[in-house]
Every structure is written in C-alpha cells, then in structure tokens.
Amino acid sequence: MAEGRALLFCGAVAAFLTSAVFAVVEDLDETFKETRVNDIWLVDFYAPWCGYCRKLEPVWMEVGAELKSSGSPVRVGKMDVTAYSGMSSEFGVRGYPTIKLLKGDLAYNYKGPRTKDDIVEFANRVAGPAVRPLPSKQIFEHIMMRHDVLFVYVGGESPLKEKYNDVATELIVYTYFFSASEEVFPETVSLPELPAVVVFKDGGYLTYDEYEDVSLSSWVNKERFQGYLQIDGFTLYELGETGKLVVIAVIDEKDPTAESGRLKTLIEGVAKEYREHFSRDFQFGHMDGNDYINNLIMGEVKVPSVIILNTSNEQYFLPGEPIESKEQLVEFIKGVLNGSVQAHGGDGIVQRIQRVFFEARSTIVSVFRSSPILGCFLFGLPLGVISLMCYGIFVGSGDYSEEIDPLRSGLTDEEEEEGEEEEEEEGEEEGDRRNRTPRKNPKQKKTD
Length: 448
Prior knowledge:
This protein is an alpha/beta fold. The chain is built from 17 helices and 16 strands. The strands form 3 sheets. It has a 6-stranded mixed β-sheet with strand order 11-13-12-14-15-16, with helices on both faces. Strands 1-3-2-4-5 form a 5-stranded mixed β-sheet. Helix 3 crosses helix 5 and helix 14 crosses helix 15. The protein is globular. It starts with a helix and ends with a helix. 22% of the residues are buried.
C-alpha cells in the first residue's frame, strides 16, 4: 500500500513538473499576429514532420524554463506553421525550424548554434537596449572580462552616434554595443579624436576610420570576431559576410601531432604580432579535419597544412612549399594580398558546372556508402528502365530493314542480275508444267 502511494506521489510530481515546463513555452495560433505587439517574444516556427524541429524541442523547453526562472521579460512560444500557413509569409519563415525574436515592429533571426546557452544569451542580448551605457571604470572592466569583443561609442551627440545606434539595432544579433565617456577607459587607451567608435578585442583596440573603412556597418561586421578562432562550417559561413580572407591551419584534433601543434601556434602568433598589418584583410584560425574544406574547393587538402580561403568568391590559395617558419607564413600572406600568389577555384561558369557534377557525384557516393541497397534502387532502377527503352527502340527500328539472302551476300551486281534471270526462267518453266497438267473431269472422279 505504501509503495503504491509512493508511486502515485512520484507520478503526480512528474506530471506537475512536466506541466510546469510546458507552461513556459506557449503554443501560438493565428491570433498571435495581433496579440504579440506589447511583449517581447522568442518563437520557434516549426513543422511536425521536420527532424531538426523534433531535435530542437527538448532544448526549446529548457530555453523557456531558463528565461522564466531568470525573470527575463522574454516570452517563449512555438508555432506549427503547417497548421497556420499564413503565418509563414507574415513572419518571413522560409525553412524549419526558424527562431525569431520579435520586439515591437522588429524581427531578429537567430542563426547560431541550437544550444540552450547560446539561444538564451541571444534572447537576453537582443531583448535589451541596442546600446548599453558604461557609467564607470569598474563596470567597463567587468564587461571586458565577460566579453571577447566589445564595441563602444565615445562622445556626445553627433551624426556618428546616429549611425552607431542604427548599426547596433541591425547587428545586435551578433554582438553587444555600448556607449561611454573617455574617462572610463584605462590610461593606455588613447583616441585620436572624438566622437569615436572603438572595438576592444585580442588584448588591444581598434578605432573606426570613417575615410578608410567607409561603412560603419561593414566595419563592425568585419571586426566582430576575435583575431584567432576555432573555425567550423557555420563560422566559415559567417566569415564570408565580412569580406575577409581566412588563413586556416587544417589539423586533426582527434589525432594531434607535433606538426599540427606547430602550424596552429604559428598562425596564432602571426595573428597577434601582425594584427595591425593584417587584421583589416585577414581572419586567422584553425579547423578540425578537412572534410568541409575539401567540399568547398572540390579537391583534397592534406592534414596538417595551411590554406587561405576567399569565401566570398570560393577562391583558395596554397603555399608553394611547406610552411616552416613565421617569415614564410608572413611572405605567403603578403603574396596573397598583393596578387603574386596564384588563386585557385572561383565562382565562374566553368567552376559552377564543375560544382554541379562534383555535388552529384558526392551525393551518389554518400548514398551508396550509407545504404547500398537504397543506392541501387534509386540509381540502378532508372538506369535499367532507360536501358530497356533504348534496347526496345533499336530492336524495333530493325524490324523494317530489308532482309538479305545469305546465299547472295558477297556477289557482284552482274552475278546478281544473272541469278535473277535464272530465277525468272525457272519460274516460267514451272508455270508451263502446271499449265500442261490435264485436269480431271468431275464425272471421271465419280467413275474412278
């Protein structure tokens, strides 16, 4: 009896906790369009049949619970856009799942990793003000400890401040933006003039130059990354929007070697020591494995090695000889910058045609490796049908061809004419014999 009560109590607690978790994630319908305006919403637009959506579901419940328990003003919801198809066009949903933070008339797309911590950090950052104040040195130092990259506007009211506020509203999905007076900075920070926009990263700082960098939005987009990164496919995609070339040490972290460690340290050292020379044009980092890069360049890069990618036009650069020293690496980078190093690949017509065949071949190989039977069915069956159709066409076309007498094959035209005359004579003689044969009278048949 006691065991039954204990089980009943545990079941009730579990049901309560489950209902509590689901309560922090609200199911939304078509009325959400009118009711959302007065609140900040983090919404998962999903489709029930989508595998990625089902994978995100438990993470989304954790996101809702975290934001609720922390007292965040962000409300968390989810919407089945297959049930409310009009909502897809209303909120610009083009794929599943799509995560958006809706704040007033603004909608921000989330493009980062689908983990609880990353999504919660995104929600808290975008839900707050686009530009946050830094009123004291203590708060500045505290913020510097929490963030790897920090953008700060320094100065009073100005056209530059208006541009900065607009850029912050646009790019807050990627990073934080602050404003401060010059007094909050350490004495080592010296600004040439005010107002100014400064980015703090990699133990130093860079100042926006309106004449050299032209667009503040482009400059912020280029400088929002640390000078040296661990790069994956998603990061490489984002780096493509910066317009920078990417210097990569391709290594195998699962099987680290002394050469891998040496190249990684070499590139990281150049990123720090030559920051003022290369930071505007190059991004530095390392990548685990060569699968992604092999697919990008439609070739094979050995591990470990060094490669420079131009993700904006799919070009890549390889050193003429193995990189053995820092000086060699610097010369290689300078050669890419001044055009003396040959570029490979690109996005021209020839490369695009090659890309179509490469991806088709990769898809076929991938299918056969993962499921040979499915591969035979998908590709073997159509080929078999096409082969039968071709066979039927060719065989059918031969039914109306003139038959050739094997006895006459190889004869000349004169011999064929003589043979035809002999056949005609034989035919006439046979006809004469038939005409000379007497026919019996019917009466004679009866007599016989």
